[in-house]
Amino acid sequence: NPEGAIKWVEEVEIIFEAMGCTDENKTTLGVYVLREEANNWWRNVKLRIGADGVAIVWELFRREFLRKYFSADVKNKKVVEFMELMQGNMSVSEYSVKFEALCV
Fold first, then answer.
1. Gap between the Cα atoms of 12 and 89, Å rounded
2. Residue 10 near residue 104 (C-beta atoms within 8 A)
3. Could you read off the pLDDT of 67-97 as tens digits, one per residue?
4. At a CB cut-off of 8 Å and minimum separation 6, what does 57 contact?
5. How far apart are CA 11 and CA 64, in angstroms?
6. Nearest to 38 by CA among 10, 60, 72, 64
7. Which pTM value belongs to this model?
8. How far is 94 from 14, CA to CA, in rounded Å?
9. What's the pLDDT tens digit per position in 20-74?
10. Which residues lie below 8 Å from residue 41, measured CB to CB, with a gap of 6+?
């Protein structure tokens, strides 16, 4: 679920901010809450990227996670949806919610 991936990242980043996480701790905490398929994906990424001794900071994790769970095809569809968004019969409030959701 691509939207779920974005929402998960946003929620985890809110937790980081609330907890005052250091950059060093963000990946550790983020990975801790992964489940099932995402956890298996992470183990493989860690072996692939971490094999060279590269420290996997949150930005690197985030980029890899979104590459996996929010593909370029989905991004392109969202761009088209954004470009074609018109208020039409929606209230200003409904339009604003839709607009902000597509801006993510």
1. 35
2. yes
3. 888 766 666 676 777 777 788 888 988 888 8
4. 23, 24, 26, 27
5. 17
6. 64
7. 0.67
8. 24
9. 998 879 998 998 988 888 889 999 988 888 777 778 889 999 998 988 887 666 6
10. 68
